[in-house]
Each structure stands twice: as C-alpha cells, then as structure tokens.
Amino acid sequence: MKIICVGRNYAEHAAELKNEVPQEPVLFMKPDTSLILPKQPFFYPDFSNDVHYEAEVVVRINRLGKHIETRFAHRYYQEVALGIDFTARDIQNRLKEKGLPWEKAKAFDGAALIGQWVDISQLPPIHTLDFSLHLNGNCVQQGNTGCMLFSVDQLISYISSFFTLKIGDLIFTGTPAGVGPVKKGDILEGFLNHMPNFYLPIR
What we know:
Layout: E1 3-7, H1 11-16, E2 26-30, E3 51-53, E4 55-61, E5 77-85, E6 87-88, H2 89-97, H3 103-106, E7 112-114, E8 118-119, E9 130-135, E10 138-144, H4 152-160, E11 170-172, E12 180-181, E13 187-192, E14 195-201
C-alpha cells in the first residue's frame, strides 16, 4: 500500500505558508507505518515542538491502474474519508531551507490519520464536498473540494503517469487554509459533508 500526498493543492493554503502556487501537483509519500491505528490517539513526537494539523479528503484506490486518463479516473475509487496529514513544521522548515526532502517532517510514525470510509454514492459529487476540522470544539479549517487546484480525477491521472496505482493505495488530496499547531490534551474532530468522520485525542 502506498500513501501518496498532494501538497499546495489549495491556493489559499499555499499563500499562508508563503509558497508559490504550483503549475502541476506537488507529490510526496508516507509509509504505511505513518498511519494511526484505529481507536488510537496521536502521540506527540519528542523530536518536534511544532506539529501542525492539515485536514484533507482522502481517496482509496480500488482498481489497478497505470496512465489513467482523467475521464476514466472516477472508475478507480468508490470511497472517501477525511484525514489529517500531520507535519512537524519546525523540522520541515529546516529541511526546506537546506533543499532537503521532507520525510522526517511528514512521514514519521503516526503522521497520518484516516477517518471513517464513506461510499461516494452517499455523498454529493466528489468535486463539491464540504469538509471541516474542529480543534477543541472550534472550527479551524473549512474546505470544499471544488476549490482544489487539481481535482481528484486530475490527481489520479497525474499520479498514475508516474506510479502504478494498486488496490488499497491512498491519496491525500491536499489541505485548505487554516493549518495550525496542536498540543497535548487537544481534541481534533473531522466532518465530511457535515457528518462526523473522526475524533482524535492528542496525547
């Protein structure tokens, strides 16, 4: 299983981190060891003092595919969830300054959460999904997939031109503006199409 993540896929998020808006998708990966196990909290790592949440719609691939055309990409997924791409921002900033890869900041154990999978037949069209993240009861991120720079289907087509997609592969599709830090004792709650999708304590 591959976890493929998309960076800077919402213009406002790119702006808040003072990044250029990309002309093509920015891709990076996480290992399967980065996934938080069901019913487990997020354990704050001891190597960072500035871990940020980034709420994202996640797509699970259900067919083997390579060089998938955008018009056929909708055939390669049936379920979506809301997830979090946790980022050790202090480490990421140091790595970016040196032009080094981001893995230590993005791919550490526990750096990926996936909420409850929902069949797309139970949701509005994939390009119109509302989602939000609440921190200790306060809404800190709100997004709609219609604001993506590159749609889910465009992402699948682009990614499959580099990597063969296999059943069970996950695609984190990018985060909107509003990312910020978490601390021990916080509670994160995710909502997909205004319905609860995950509940995550920070320990």
